[in-house]
Amino acid sequence: MRILIAGLGDLGAEVARLAAGEGHEVFGLRRSAAPAPGGVALLQGDVTEPSTLDLPPALDLVVYCVAADARDEGAYRRAYPEGLSHVLGALTRESPEARVLFVSSTGVYGDAAGAWVDEDTAPAPEGFTGRAMLEAEAVLEGSAFRGTSLRLGGIYGPGRTFLLDAIRSGRPFPAETMGHWTNRIHRDDAARAILHVAATPSAPPVLNVVDPAPARRAGVLEWLATQLGRALVTAAAAPTRSPGADRRVSSRRLASTGFEFHFPSFKDGYRALLGEPPPGREGS
């Protein structure tokens, strides 16, 4: 396949690397001239500036996984509904038969008071980040392209060690959200899932991409603190990132397509990050 990865950040670069390793012809689109992964042809362009999008013809697949350049409503609108619309416009001219995968977020669901949500749950985003993602999903759904919006949970993995760093430094976590359910996906499983869906012709229009084991925030943080040999610090009001909504996100529909997780729980993924072998296995 001829594949374009729009956005060569941490996740996009891993998707590009895996796709090139499978023998696909891969193009990577980013604003900077920083090198692309091996085997990936770099294209410089800005999704917020349509005039810079000189895309190759006859693409079979486009994976849109850009990152907003700031955490404010304007930046999110430019990166997601507007940026995706610009890329789809360029594709209409060069690759009208391409399939499109949009990397969205479980943030579109909003708060569910700890209940389960799945792809049939009506989205109810509470903040501008989730609203921008939902608007971008609507852009893809309303286009002429075959596409799937992939709603990812919180990504962790190599280079994404916020929780570990916070615990090591003794930064406090909000005590009032310790009982909240959290949902995550290891970066490597996220990249593998994207390519799995790309190889699934009958994939539905929306799929949740989270590991199958939601966990309460307290359980995650206490386990990590134990692994690190540190004390877990909580506070009534903590200067940390917003803890997010309370919900359990189902990934059963993704599993029904045949996808198998390498890291089916946070313990599996963080053991790998900490250099520990999984239970019952020798070595790494």
> For the record, what is the CATH homologous superfamily label?
NAD(P)-binding Rossmann-like Domain
Number of helices: 8
Low-confidence region ranges: 280-284
Give the tally of β-strands.
15
What order do the SSEs take from the amino end to the carboxyl end, as H and E?
Answer: EHEEEHEEHEEHEEEHEEHEEHH
Q: What Rg, in angstroms, do the CA atoms define?
A: 19 Å
Measured by DSSP, the beta-strand proportion falls in 15-25%
Main sheet makeup = 7 strands, parallel
Distance between the termini: 33 Å
CATH architecture: 3-Layer(aba) Sandwich
CATH topological fold name: Rossmann fold
Brief sketch in words of this structure:
The protein has 284 residues and is an alpha/beta fold.
Please describe what this structure looks like.
By secondary structure, this protein is α/β, with parallel strands linked by helices. The chain has a single domain (2-273), classed as Rossmann fold (3-Layer(aba) Sandwich), CATH 3.40.50. Helix content is 33%, strand content 20%. The protein has 8 helices and 15 strands. Strands 3-2-1-4-5-7-12 form a 7-stranded parallel sheet, with helices on both faces. The chain has a two-stranded parallel sheet with strand order 6-15. Helix 2 (73-94) links the parallel strand 4 and strand 5. Helix 1 crosses helix 5 and helix 4 (162-169) packs across helix 6. The protein is globular and about 55 Å long. The model is unreliable at 280-284 (pLDDT under 50).
Any key phrases for this structure?
284 residues, Rossmann fold
